[in-house]
Amino acid sequence: MIERVARQRRARPPLWNRIRDYALYSIIAIIVVLAAVGFGIHQGKTGGSPVLPMKWIGFGGMTLIAYGYAISDNTKLWRARGFWLGLSCLWPSWLTC
Prior knowledge:
Layout: H1 2-8, H2 15-46, H3 52-72, H4 81-96
């Protein structure tokens, strides 16, 4: 009985794998923050529109999130041509909304 319960538990990843993952997440977060600060400094120096570029950045981020979740949640369908055709057909409607 104890062996059965022990087998059912998921093995935790080794400590070094978790440290590596958190380090990568931290590096990515730092890059994103530095890019946003750099963009703000550039906008301030050039006197660009404070609203228009942020709308496009937000739209691009939402597109990555929406399509990223749709693709990652359907990994079994990656080999199906219809899945990619369906996503491609939805792309123009996403752009026009």
